Amino acid sequence: MAIYQEHELQVVSKKFQIYGEILHAEPCKIGHINETYTATYDQGGTRVRYIHQKINQNVFKQPDAVMENVMRVTTHLRDKLIAERAGDITRRAVTVVPTRAGHSFYRTRSGDYWRTFVFIEGLQTYEAVQSPEQAAEAGFAFGQFQRLLADLPGERLHETIPDFHNTRKRFAALQQAIENDHYNRAKDVAKEIKFALAQEPIVDVLLGSLARGELPERATHNDTKFNNVMMDVVTGKAMCVVDLDTVMPGLAHYDFGDMVRTTTSPTVEDEPDLSKVEMNTPIFQSLARGYLAAAGSFLTPAEKSHLAFSGKLITFTIGIRFLTDFLNGDKYFRVHRPHHNLDRCRTQFKLVQSIERQQDAMQKFVDGL
Ligand code: GN1
Ligand code: MG
Predict the structure, then answer these.
(1) Atom of ligand 1 lying closest to residue 59 CA
(2) Which CATH number belongs to the domain containing residue 101 in this structure?
(3) What domain range includes position 212?
(4) Which of 64, 173, 288, 315 could disulfide-pair with 261, CB 3.0 to 4.6 Å?
C-alpha cells in the first residue's frame, strides 16, 4: 500500500468544498484497488468526517469517465430516493463533494486523481456475513440499486473497464499468464491451474446468452462484494451501496453472482483454512429472497433461470483473476502477505466446487420464489 503522504493530503483537502480545518486522516484498509483515507475536520467546533480517495490509474485508465458515471448514478439515485420519499437520503446514497472549482475530482500536478465523499456516520461494513438476515439485507440493497438504475436517463454508461466480467477474456488472460510464467510460479500451482482449465465449458454460457439476445444488458454495480454494502450499526439494515467505480453496462448476474461469492460462505475472502469454505444453504436462500424482493419485479424468466449458475461463474471468474495476478507477480490486487492472491484464489475455487454440488437445489429454490 502506498504510504500516507500527509503533505499531499493537506494540499488535496483544501481543493474541495469543505469548510473547516483538517485535523487528521487515517488510511482505510478495505479494498484492493484505490487509496482511501478517512479524514476528520473541525467545522465550527464540530468534528465532521469525509472520505478522500485517490483513484488507481493502473486499474482505471479513464478516471474522468469513472467520475462521469459516478456523478450520473449518484444524482439519479438521490433523485429517485427523494421521489420515493425514502428519507435519510445522505445515508442511503453516496454524496460526492465537489472541488472549489466545481468539479467532481481534483487532478494534481503529477496527474493523480482525488475525489471526496461525505463520510456516512453510524454505518459499518463487514468482511464476512454474520447471519442469513445480513445476506438478505445485502441482496435487497443491490437488487434495489439495480431497480433504481433501471430508468437511468441518457446514453449508455461508460465501460470504464472494458470486458470486466468477460470470463472468456479472463480465461485467455490466465492462459497467457501460464504461458509467460514470468515469475516461475506455475509449478507451485499446478493443481489450481488444472482445475481452472477444466472449467472451460462454463466460460461462455452467459456471454453466449447475451450475444443471442436472451439476456438484457442493464446498468449494474459489478463489484457487489459484501463489504460494499453499508449497514446501520443500530438497526442492522443495509443503507448504502458504495464503491461505484465499476458501475457500467452489465448483466444482472454479475451482481448476483458476486453476492453469492462474497456472502454464501461465512468466511473471509482470503480464509486460509479451506475446510471452512462452503456454500451455506440458509444464507443463499436468504440472499436470493432479499435480492428478488427488490429485483423480482424487473428480471425476466431467462435472467432468473441463470441466477444459481452465476454464483459459480462469477466466483470462478474472480478466482482466475487472483490466480492470473499471482502468476503475473501480484501487480493488480493489493497484497498483504506472500501468496495472498493464491490464498484468495483457493477459497474461490473451493467455493466453486461447493456451489457446483448444490447448484440444482439452489436454482430450484430460486424458481420457487
Ligand atoms: C476488487 O475495489 P475492491 O477491492 O472492492 C476488484 C473486484 C474484485 C475484488 C475482489 C476494479 O474490488 O473486481 O472482485 O477486488 N475491483 C476491480 O475482492 O478490479
Ligand atoms: Mg471496487
Answers:
(1) 11
(2) 3.30.200.20
(3) 132-367
(4) 315
